[in-house]
Amino acid sequence: MDTPYKIRKATASDSHRVPEIMLQAMEDMIFRLILKEDQQAAVQFLTQLFQQKGNLYSYENTFVAVDIDDRIIGSLTGYDGDRFIELRQPILDLIADHYANNLIPETETAGGEFYIDSIAVAPIARGKGIGTKLLHHAITHAKENHFNQVGLLVDLANPNARKLYERIGFNIGKKTSVAGSEYYHMYMQLT
C-alpha cells in the first residue's frame, strides 16, 4: 500500500529539508553559482535563499509533498515567468558578494507562463507518483491564477523526465542553453 501524502504551500520553516531535496534537481547549476562542488555549501546556499522572500528559490514560490507524518518528501518551485529577472537578481547579488562570481546565467523563461524552476522527490519516495502529483498541483495553481501556459526546462540528457512531462501533456519547444547545459523548453497550453 502506498504511503498517503498531500501537497501544501511551503513555509520558511521547511528549510530544514526542502533545500536538500531541491538540490537534487539542480546540483550542477548550484555548483556553478557557488564555484565549488560541495553539497553542504550548496545546501547552505539554497537554505539562505529558500528562507528569504523575493527570489527564485524562496519558500513563497515552493510547494511541498508531505507524508502522513508531515515529513517533506518532494518539492516543486515555480513562479510567474514574467518576474524571472526580478527574482533572479537577489541570487546574482549573493553569488557576487559571497562567492566572487559574476556569472549571469541565461534567462530560463521568456515569460508569459507559470515557470516550473525545479521539481525533486526524496530518494525514499521515488516511484510513487509524487512528482506527477506535484506537476498536476502546479498546473492547477497556474490555471487558478489565470496563466495561459506552464513551462519548464528538461535536460537533453534526461529522456525519462522528458517522457514523464510528455505523458502529462507538455510539448517540446525550442532547445536552449543555460550555464553550459542543453535543455528543451517544454510547455503546456492551458487555454
TrEMBL record:
<dbReference type="Pfam" id="PF00583">
    <property type="entry name" value="Acetyltransf_1"/>
</dbReference>
<keyword id="KW-0808">Transferase</keyword>
<protein>
    <submittedName>
        <fullName>Ribosomal protein S18 acetylase RimI-like enzyme</fullName>
    </submittedName>
</protein>
<keyword id="KW-0012">Acyltransferase</keyword>
<dbReference type="InterPro" id="IPR016181">
    <property type="entry name" value="Acyl_CoA_acyltransferase"/>
</dbReference>
<feature type="domain" description="N-acetyltransferase">
    <location>
        <begin position="5"/>
        <end position="191"/>
    </location>
</feature>
<dbReference type="InterPro" id="IPR050680">
    <property type="entry name" value="YpeA/RimI_acetyltransf"/>
</dbReference>
<dbReference type="InterPro" id="IPR000182">
    <property type="entry name" value="GNAT_dom"/>
</dbReference>
